Each structure stands twice: as C-alpha cells, then as structure tokens.
# Entry
Amino acid sequence: MGVFREIPPTAGWPVYAKDIAGLFKIKARGSLEEDFKGYLKVPYARVTNSGTAALYLILETLKGLSPKRSVIIPSYICPLVPLAAKRAGLEVVVSDINAEDFNFDLAQLEQICLKDKDISAIIVAHLGGLPLNLRALGRIAAKFGILMIEDCAQSLGAVYENRLTGTYGDFSFFSLCRGKGLTIYEGGVAVTNNKEYIRPLENKIKELVRNDFFEEGLKILEFFGYWVFYRPELFWFVFKLPQAFWNWRGRKARAALEEFSQNFPLHRVWPLRKAIGHLSFHRLEEEIGKQREKAAFYIERLKGMRGVRVLREGPQERAVYPYLTLIFDRPQMRQKALLALESKGLGVSFVYSAAITDYGYLKGLVFGQDPRGGRALAERALTLSTSTFLKEREQILILDTIAKNIAGF
# Structure
C-alpha cells in the first residue's frame, strides 16, 4: 500500500466520468424525486440540501399536525438529529438502546411514552444499514397515538418484512451526503407515505426554503472536488489530514466529524445536482450488492472468533451494510484493535464516539435517563469499511489484525 493510500470508512459511491457526461444530454428523462417515489412506492419525496434539512422540515410540519412539543430519539444517534429538533423548537427526550445492537430498549421506550404526555413522535434510526424492529416500534407508536419518523440516512435499500425502510413511518428522511452511497455531495430527501401529510409538508418547504446562490454554488464545486479526491490515492488529504489537525487542536468531536451547530444550511438544491443523483440512481441495487458481498466476506471469516460479535440482518430483512459493525465483549478489546488498525488506512472506524447525552456541546439540549446501552455500544463498537475500493487482501489483513490483538483477552 502507498504511504497515503486511505480507504473511506463507509461505502460511498465513486463518481464516474460517464455520470458527469450524462449531464450534457439534451433530453434527460425522469428526476431524482421520481426515482425515490418509484423505488420506495410512496406518494411524495422531495430533495433537500441535506438529510438534516429534510428532518428539520418534517419536524416543522409536525408542529402543525400535533400540539405536542417533544420527540423521542435513541441514545445512540447522529448529533445533528437533536440539533434539528431544537431548531424546530421541540424538546428532545432520549430513550436508551440495547447494549448489544441499535434497537431501542422497548420497555424503557414504552415507559417514556406512558409517562410523558407531550410526545408527538419517535425518531428511529436504521444505523449501519440494519433495519430496526419496526413491527414493535409501530405497535408502540400506534398504542400511544404518536407518529414515527424513520431516519434512513444509512439505510437506502434496506428491507424489513418485505418493505423498504422509509415506508413504515409516517415520515422518513434519507441522506445524499458524501460517503452515504448515492450522493450529490450533500443532500437529503424528505418522504411521507401518508397522502394527508403531503400538503402540510410541501407548504412548509415553500415557506422555509429559499435560493442561496453562494451555498449551492459552493456545493457544486465541492461535488466536483469529491469526484477528484474520492479515491484511495487522494482521500488521505481530505479526510485523514484534517482529522489529524483537529485532534492536534484537541477538537476530538470535530476530528470525528461529530461537531455541529443548529445553524445548518437550508436552501434549494439546483437542478444540476438533482440531475447528477438521477443519472446515478440506476446503480443503486448493483452498489448494494457490492456492499453486501464485502460484508459477507467479513461475516463468514468472523464466525467463531471469540470476543467479537457481528451486527447482521435478521430473518425477513435485507441490510445494505454501508459498513459492517462489530461489537467486542470488552471496551479494551475494541480499543486495542482500533489502535492497531487506524494508522493502516484500511477504513476501520466507529459509528459514533459517544452516547448522545455525552457530547459536551449538547448539554441542556437532550434529556433522559442514564444511556447505559448507548454508552456501552459507543465503547465497544468498531466498523469495517465495505468500500468498493477495498481489496480482498486488505480485508484479510483487517481480520488478521483484529484476531491478533484480541487473542490475549
């Protein structure tokens, strides 16, 4: 491997010249929004400038549908989720997850819904491309008369009981950000499966979203930068080098790409970037297949490895695996394996560095009980890249390094 060779930690799609060349066709048919509607079989999908913006617009719509002003989030989730809720003027209540996977602790979730009469919605996050237990979550939401919002930022194409994630909830949102698979560099999609909610959501988008020539022009330039730099030979310069700088400055959350604010952009996505996504959409199932092949390679060879467990799809599920998540028996095992691998440029990383209540800059924004499950997962989870750039010999090196470093425990 070269000195600066760096594998992306997630299975973002590379951009090909033919994708760009397609922009110059005079008669382009279809649209990215129609692609999502057709694929998900939903009546409404609207492209936004980020997944966070999509969530924020959904939450603003929610305020017109319910007088209640609190939303439940899991204890292990992207910090942008509570920031979007706070910007929408909603209170954030944290419900813990299991210590062994990304699912809610259902008993605690039900108790929160029973005691707090101000809950309007549950936000459920399908992390790692793994569908949550939507049947149980839907039952709880229906029991207490609250809405369900699916966070599908990492699960486009995942299936639960013969239905795609994003089609169970009253609303859902997807991410088109770099590294999330299908990408327009930064973007999102707001979806509703309920025809009654289309007009309120559409009206809210018209009310709040405006043109921003500077922001959108910048994103177009950044997309072409992504085209150039999103390859192992150059990725180090835009990913690892900034990470090293922010770690040197003591900004751990910034280095981990987990430092955000409520002042996230909200602007229209121009037709050019939508066209880029539309021209790439046909690759979706092929790319999911590649990710699943990489994950299957790991899974087969991790069988019987003591001290580590793989989070994988269950019966009647299809995971899309933008990365594969491992859970170690002890935090010390995870840490030793991570330290041994993080300098090798093989895309080994973690989901989030902390439970959502443990980010210092979110103090006072999120409320809930001690997130033991979320904290345990943050300490014991490791992610293995399923990037198309990763070679089989590199996957073997990753597995051998993990086995060697946890053998003494």
Observations:
- The chain has 16 helices and 14 strands.
- The mean pLDDT is 94.
